[in-house]
Amino acid sequence: MRDLLVTGIIFGLIPFIFKRPWVGILLWSWLGYMNPHRLAWGFAYDFPFAMIVGLVTIVAFMASKEKKEMPWTRETIVLLIFVGWMLFTTFFAFYPDAAWFQWNKVWKIQLMIFLTALILKERQHLHWLIWVIALSLGFYGVKGGIFTIVNGGAYRVQGPAGTFIGGNNEMALALVMTIPLIRYLHLQETRHWIKIGLASAMVLTGVAAIGSQSRGGLVAMVAMGLFLWLKSRNKIVTAIYMAIAVGILASVMPQEWYDRMSTINTYQEDQSAQGRINAWHTAFNVAKDRITGGGFEMWQPPVFRQYAPDPFNVRDVHSIYFEVMGEQGFIGFALFMLLGLMAWIRAQQIIKRYKKDPDNKWASDLSAMIQVSLVGYATGGVFLGMAYFDLPYHLMIILVLAAKFSGVLEKQPAPILAFARKERLPANSTEPRHANRI
What we know:
The chain is 71% helix and 0% strand. By secondary structure, the chain is mainly α.
């Protein structure tokens, strides 16, 4: 029954994509974040819905009369360079078959990220995209929060198998990043009953993130929660929501959870933590030895035997930073970090411009909450290997679109564009033109 329901919804919406390509972006995002087909047990489980929706979206957009204009900003340019670098390093990967298999996933994700920037033309479309992302991941937050309360925290909250958020650690980080997006929707909503629903979803999603029993998720939750409070418009209300979530957790989580979380302070004695640190050293040594790194999926025993301090302690890297460093080398790592820095600066630019502007307050709120989400990603990512997860890249593009729709990009053109405009002199100008230009 679930297979038929999911298939019916997806194929029922596909005809609308031909008239409105932005619907394809929303549908693809729903498939990518919620993975509804993975909640079925029949033919829909492995059916290539995302590929079909992606192809239809591309065809519909190319056939449409809409203006094809990419917002080329420092973020989109650096992201394109990063994608190109990942392709280049794949040619030199330690394990070509595994690397090309992973690259096949990564480039498709990045293609749809760029199409998001290319296809979404209105602020309302952007708002709906945030709704889709928040509801898709928030579904697991609400479901997982109720599951944690009902079972007294005895079981881990996990995502659908075979997805980016399949494990408890990955689910925890995704939920931590979702809470600020729900908060943004809560700030923009005027209908009382929906505001109550969003507030409840925030609390339950926080409970679910802790209910995942992920130690990295706990660290990310604390960092995100603190920054959410600092960035919040109404700190008292935010503090109340946090207090409710903490109160629920204190009353339901078992002693085993406290025992597991306490090992954060004794990581020297934890074999899992020591294995991760060994993998981090491996990543650094590979990047130091090879300009292209080891390529996707390099975390295999022969690599550890050659580059690890402890050659027989083979574990996954479990860190977005060392994952990129090891697989893409120092150049890839620098591009990855530069993307995060640029996203932060862009968000700060929007906040500064529109914090007190009622007409564009939405852009300021959205940028602040994306900053909070990125803090959760940056903190939790120290212990979790989700460097190629869709969401952080999608948030960067959402920031670019927020800048575009709020007028920031028009008001502050890129230096190259500003120079070009300055050089365009009127026909009756008496200023001499240089005969030679470099």
